Amino acid sequence: MMQPNAQSISVILPTFRRPDFLNLCLQSLASQTTPPSEVLVSVTLDDIESRKTALAWEDKLPIQLVEPIGRGVIGAMNSCLDISQGTYVLLVDDDVELPPTWVEQMLAHLFSDPNIVGAGGRDLLLDHPEFRANEKRLAHVGIVEPWGRIVGNHHRGAPPARRVRILRGSNCLYRGDFLRRVRFDEDLRGKGAQVHWELSLAFAVWQAGLSLFYDPTVEVLHHVAPRHDGDGNHRGIFDPEGIYDMTFNEVLIVLRHAPLGIRERCLCWNFLVGSVTCPGLLQIPRLIVERSPHLFKRALAAWRGRFAALAAALNARRVGV
Questions:
Q1: Which residue intervals of the chain are DSSP H helices?
Q2: How large a percentage of the chain has pLDDT more than 70?
Q3: CA distances (Å), origin 83, targets 53, 66, 166, 315
Q4: Tell me, what's the pLDDT at 11?
Q5: Which end of the chain has fewer beta carbons closer than 10 Å to its terminal beta carbon, N or C?
Q6: Residue 14: which residues within 8 A CB-CB, separation 6 or more?
Q7: What is the pLDDT of residues 245-275, one digit of tens each?
Q8: Could you give the domains of the chain?
Q9: C-alpha gyration radius of the chain
């Protein structure tokens, strides 16, 4: 077992039946100028191809296979986190390729200020190359607006590097002691990828008075590989259960983890406006005019998710959880 040291880095890498993409991810980890101390690959026993792919890198990476306990990516990440030994913990998706200096540059950001607890780079999506190449770069990244809208845009960030409120979970480096203290919220819904899990970490950082750092000059290649968990809403496939889950997760996270004042504004925005995928009350008339596809099914799934999250939070409060 690896012994901790000043720069020891544990990689947490959940994977599920995407061996070709996993191979590219591991190749990018093996090319790091600051190599990881352990690579914890969470993979189920029946995913034979992914296990073979990971073990093929044993001569170049300190690979350790971890059988996930619990549901989806949250169960996988907590299973790895429980046995990790690194002073720092790198979270990466199995369909992401990191540039060779990624670890070195993210460590530099964490070393620059003890108040910075996590850092990540620009998530360069490769799902629609021509469209992505022409997208406008933005300064509006990883924030919660004063009126409660939660903004990601980590794939479109423009320089300079800066502090943000939210990091994308596809590529981020956290201080291990912080991550082990807060862990990943196991009550989130989803068969595979429990959408919005990063938000609970972001609010935990906020509550602790700490900072996150985003460097858009460090670009990772995100292949946006197919999922095998049934939720394809972020890959152009309509799935009402996935909409229910993502809305449930966002509302539950806001209720549980958001700072007072921010919580109320985020809830108002979610219920009144929401998003095109998960429409709120005031957005529905506009989407009717625009003849948005599956609108009423999407709205119904989103509202069911919102009320289910409210019920879950109230029930937890009653039983003192």
A1: 19-30, 48-55, 72-83, 102-112, 129-133, 176-182, 197-207, 240-257, 262-272, 284-289, 295-319
A2: 94
A3: 22, 9, 26, 32
A4: 98
A5: N
A6: 41, 42, 43, 68, 73, 76, 77, 80, 93, 94
A7: 999 999 999 999 999 999 999 999 999 999 9
A8: 9-222 (3.90.550.10), 238-315 (no CATH)
A9: 19
